[in-house]
Specification:
There is one protein chain. The protein has three helices and five strands. By secondary structure, the protein is α+β, with helices and mostly antiparallel strands. The strands form two sheets. Strands 3-4-5 form a three-stranded antiparallel sheet. It is elongated, with a radius of gyration of 21 Å. It has a domain at 35-120. It has helices spanning 40-60, 62-70, 72-78, and strands at 35-36, 81-82, 87-92, 100-106, 113-120.
Length: 127
């Protein structure tokens, strides 16, 4: 499409919307390849970034959301993230409708669990 000779403002041809390109896999992958988180410190250091991607993906990918909300650990394992047996992940959707992921550690031979961290997307608007 070219501009008419009497156009006051040149018009560029329509461009497609921005596309995320990934040379090494799907752009929504949680991790490249697969990883094994060895212990509590490894979980604290590496898992928040992975869960941030998972939480963001639940907002745009309905099948992923359904699987992740039903069984977060199995979904992570299916996407290449191996967790220590002592870690428990819960996907919660509190009354505010903002989903939250909570990571707990459960000691062997104990009924109690300790919260390691939680992750929640919060949207803020400024003026």
């Amino acid at each position: 499409m070219s501009n008419p000779p009497n156009a006051l403002v040149p018009v560029r041809p329509a461009q497609p919307p921005a596309v995320v390109r990934s040379d090494d896999g799907h752009p929504f992958d949680l991790v490249k390849g697969s990883i094994k988180l060895a212990d509590k410190e490894d979980v604290r250091n590496r898992l928040p970034d992975i869960l941030g991607r998972a939480l963001a993906r639940t907002w745009i990918d309905a099948p992923f959301h359904e699987n992740f909300s039903r069984d977060p650990q199995a979904t992570l394992a299916a996407h290449g993230v191996e967790m220590p047996d002592s870690m428990i992940i819960e996907f919660q959707k509190p009354d505010s409708n903002r989903p939250r992921i909570v990571v707990y550690e459960k000691k062997q031979h104990s009924k109690f669990r300790t919260r390691i961290f939680y992750l929640q997307l919060v949207m803020m608007a400024g003026r």
